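Hi R.,

As promised on Friday, here is the backbone we talked about, encoded as structure tokens. Could you run it through your design pipeline when you get a chance and send me back a sequence?
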């Protein structure tokens, strides 16, 4: 990999990763809020299930861009270093490494976000101060390894499938997939990965 290739990979990964992460999290945040509240059913009153669905979105946006950028940067660098764009094994290793790096940013914002989703009357600043006061900095990383246990299997399933679907479609139509086809492949791969790893998400939450 030349210095120019490396620079292009870094720039593309940081920009596209940040934009993609923020867009996806913003669009799906209400669904994530309902999911989190349902998983907290023992402590959450059902009549508030669909209220303030975007409460805590600020925390998600702060962490979403950087964590997604870190993931895609790590993922693409591993794949380019291995000089293999289609190997399932390389994609799995790259995804696992990317998630391990990204979770250093993602976990603190996830902790704040989930507490905001089930404590809709508290400000984000209040939640952060309370966490730091009662639990220290380690409180923001509560569930880090549980998050890795959820995210790594998810990504190790999703990204090899995504690469496989894109390659299959490219061969089938004899030209590279378009952006919308790539997005569709990603959606299908993500749906399959989510259906398999949902129990891990429930346990983590």
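Update: got your reply. Pasting your designed sequence below so it's all in one thread:
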């Amino acid at each position: 990999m030349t210095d120019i290739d490396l620079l292009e990979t870094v720039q593309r990964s940081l920009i596209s990763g940040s934009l993609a992460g923020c867009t996806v999290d913003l669009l799906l945040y209400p669904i994530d809020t309902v999911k989190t509240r349902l998983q907290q059913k023992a402590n959450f009153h059902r009549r508030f299930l669909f209220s303030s669905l975007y409460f805590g979105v600020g925390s998600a946006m702060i962490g979403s861009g950087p964590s997604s950028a870190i993931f895609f940067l790590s993922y693409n660098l591993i794949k380019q270093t291995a000089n293999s764009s289609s190997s399932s094994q390389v994609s799995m290793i790259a995804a696992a490494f990317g998630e391990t790096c990204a979770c250093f940013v993602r976990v603190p914002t996830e902790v704040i976000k989930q507490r905001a989703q089930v404590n809709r009357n508290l400000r984000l600043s209040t939640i952060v101060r309370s966490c730091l006061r009662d639990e220290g900095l380690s409180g923001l990383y509560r569930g880090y390894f549980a998050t890795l246990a959820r995210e790594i299997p998810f990504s190790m399933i999703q990204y090899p499938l995504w690469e496989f679907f894109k390659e299959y479609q490219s061969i089938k139509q004899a030209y590279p997939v378009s952006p919308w086809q790539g997005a569709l492949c990603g959606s299908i791969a993500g749906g399959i990965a989510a259906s398999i790893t949902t129990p891990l998400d429930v346990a983590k939450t």
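One thing I noticed while checking it: The chain has seven helices and no strands.

Thanks again,
M.
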